[in-house]
Amino acid sequence: MTARIYRPSKTAMQSGVANTRKWVVEYDLSEPRTVEPLMGWTSSGDTRQQLKLRFDTEAEAVAYCERNGIPYQVFETKTSPRRAISYSDNFAFKRRDAWTH
């Protein structure tokens, strides 16, 4: 069973970058999920898929996996550049577009 090491991206419901700075170690599925016939719930006998470990740095996450003999894959996330904008730029003389309401 391999583990994935990644930094989660921000969700579509937030504009900030909260909960995206830590690295996550998450196990892959070792057996497929099944649908229980009585209630229709999805279940699995593998409890490791419920485990998410958070680390401050990528090196700490890799060291944890190597120390415990867990095979892992590191997934790098592409960060989008943050545009620095200012409220006062809306009223600047060098503004190209006309100010309209």
What does this structure look like?
Helix content is 10%, strand content 21%. It is mainly beta and 101 residues long. The protein has a domain at 3-10 and 17-77: atu1810 like domain (Double Stranded RNA Binding Domain, 2-Layer Sandwich), CATH 3.30.160.190. The longest helix is centred in the middle third of the chain and has 10 residues, at 58-67. The termini are far apart. The mean pLDDT is 86.
* Assigned CATH class of the domain at 3-10 and 17-77: Alpha Beta
Could you list the spans in which at least 5 consecutive residues all have pLDDT below 50?
Answer: none
SSE series: EEEEEHE
Q: What sort of overall outline do the alpha carbons produce when their principal axes are compared?
A: elongated
Helix content bin = under 10%
Our estimate of the beta-strand percent is 15-25%
CATH superfamily of the domain at 3-10 and 17-77: atu1810 like domain
Question: What is the C-alpha radius of gyration, as a whole number of Å?
Answer: 22 Å
Biggest sheet record: 4 strands, mixed
Number of DSSP strands? 6
Return the structural class.
mainly beta
| Secondary structure tally, helices | 1
Taking the alpha carbons of the first and last residues, their distance comes to 57 Å
Q: Mean pLDDT, rounded to whole units?
A: 86
**CATH architecture of the domain at 3-10 and 17-77, please?**
2-Layer Sandwich
Strand order of the largest sheet: 5-2-1-6
CATH topology of the domain at 3-10 and 17-77: Double Stranded RNA Binding Domain
